[in-house]
Amino acid sequence: MVAAVQAISQATIIGSKKSKVYKGGVVSIFQQSLVSFLRLIPRMVKKDFDFVFIGFFGQLLTQLIAPFVKKPIILDMFVSAFDTLVEDRKLTDEKSLLSRYLFKLDKRSGSRASLIFVDTNAQAEYFHETFGIPSSKMKRVFVGCDETLFHPLPEKPGSRTVLYYCSYLPLHGVNVVVEAAELLQDDPSVTFKIIGKGIEYGKIEKSIQEKQLKNIELADPVSIDQLPAEIQDSLICLGGHFGTSAKACRVIPGKVFQMIAMGKPVIVGDNAANHELLTHQVDSWFCEMNKPVSLADAISTLCHDEAMRNKIAEGALKTYQRSAKSELLKSIVQDRILDVMKIKN
Known about the structure:
By secondary structure, this protein is α/β, with parallel strands linked by helices. Helices cover 47% and strands 12% of the residues.
């Protein structure tokens, strides 16, 4: 058994966050997995590593390398292929050949991996019940965020903006945000800004035009290094998810970590995943999912209650530093990997 630092440094890390892959493009995922496999061949021949760490999206790559690697495979199973493409985005019928392949891909890669990192316990429960992956091999590690970008900044005085940014996926529930804005259109103290583009953008834009809503600005996507300024310039941030899909209830949106790391008051959907990190009226405000009235009430309450906003903002930053700070997450990952290495050796 090598020393801790050496064990971590000798890992082969495979994964990609290139835009097309990160957004879930199926073709790009398959291409990137194949390229990564070909790049990994010389290392597999040399066998000069202690374990293989496979990042997002890693199920296909796990299947490709499994027959050639005897060392532990660590898989970051941030998403399920079957859940994302079939159950959530409904890109194919549940009885199709592709659907059955994606199901087996999740199940077999989960079976082959020695350790699987998941983002919430709710997600781990789903993987266990759906794919039969043993709960013992799954370890929760919160997503966190890049703290060199997302940290407290000077407040913008007089802001009335309620900020939401997303890629317009069904689970995001942008329609719920729009309907909440409609309910609050007579309140001059509230304006909405939604940043992003995606598959439901056209439908949302049309809805806003038909409703003749003047309190919503639809803004183009911005680079990640511009997001902190947008967050800090807002009065309230919407973390979500507000949609109705099962997946929306099992994940903590990445934007939530960015928002609370900056110490901003955030409104989130009332689901099991968000409760793993956050507490209502302590570090966030919970509202019913897919309920525009509940979201509108939450926004109105926080917009007009400065003391509560400040309390939640302060609690949010404390929660991030206590539970999701990068140093803590790195330590958890390292400890879990070393545990697996001890078992295998």
